[in-house]
Amino acid sequence: MSTSVTSRALDLLGAFGPEHRALTLSSLARRAGLPLATAHRLVAELHRWGALARLDTGEYVIGRRLWDLGLLAPVQAGLRQAASPFLHDLYGATLATVHLAVRDELEVLYIDRISGHASVPVVSKVGSRLPMHATGVGKVLLAHAPEPVRGEVLQRLHRVTPYTVTQPARLLEQLRRVRAEGFATTGEEMSPGACSVAVPVRGPDGEVVAALGIVVPDLRRERARLVAALRVAAQGIGRVLTSAQWKQGLA
Taking every annotated instance into account, which residue ranges of this chain make up the domain HTH iclR-type (predicted)? Predict the structure, then answer.
């Protein structure tokens, strides 16, 4: 059965990823499994529409129009709108980098971020995806994910830094503690010199719909204060998510 034009265009967009943010035409064709001539025609159409942008180097990147459309999705628009004032309050109280993230299949998708004052190496960006097992927000989301998701992530553990937890039994114990204690921490597991702490954000039915996290140089002295601040912010977001205004926004 022949592949539709729509499927081929989606294959081209799907060729991009965290490790492949800029691609040449030949790379796009190869990763999408398309003949070069077909890729050339479809890429030109996607570029004219704004789904792709062309750099001075000749490489293609995801275009602004796709990002604008993505922001209209309820998981982004609703959550970002509900969480925005609480993220700013959290930043004002800690001056640390603040993250709001959701689970996207087996990865963490960062949907909002406020950069902190401290010179802490932070690799996440709004719209980027990172491994769940190496991030604070990821561990929160993984702890509350369906069992099949946890099982698949446990089979794909990889080392990002020398401190990344890659032993399934150890990670499972950490996830158990996340559910019991209500927060997750990391120590230089995603980036050397960066520690994180995160808590769940619950939706109208009490389900975990997102994770709220902070990145700091050291957690040893400030963990209790940061957890308390995160919980206050997460509860505030949760109240907005359960309000009539939020429900109407998703109707």
Answer: 3-64
Q: Which residues contact 172 (CB under 8 A, 6 or more apart)?
A: 150, 154
> 64 near 127, Cβ under 8 Å?
no
* Those residues with Cβ within 8 angstroms of residue 139's Cβ, 6 or more apart along the chain or in another chain: 132, 133, 174, 175, 178, 184, 186, 198
CB atoms under 10 Å from CB of 158, counted, come to 9
For the chain, the C-alpha Rg in angstroms (whole number) is 20
- Residue 110 is inside which H or E element, if any? strand 107-114
pLDDT tens digits along 106-137:
999 898 999 887 667 778 888 788 999 999 99
Domains of the chain and CATH, by start = 5-68 (1.10.10.10), 71-250 (3.30.450.40)
**pTM, whole model, 2 decimals?**
0.73
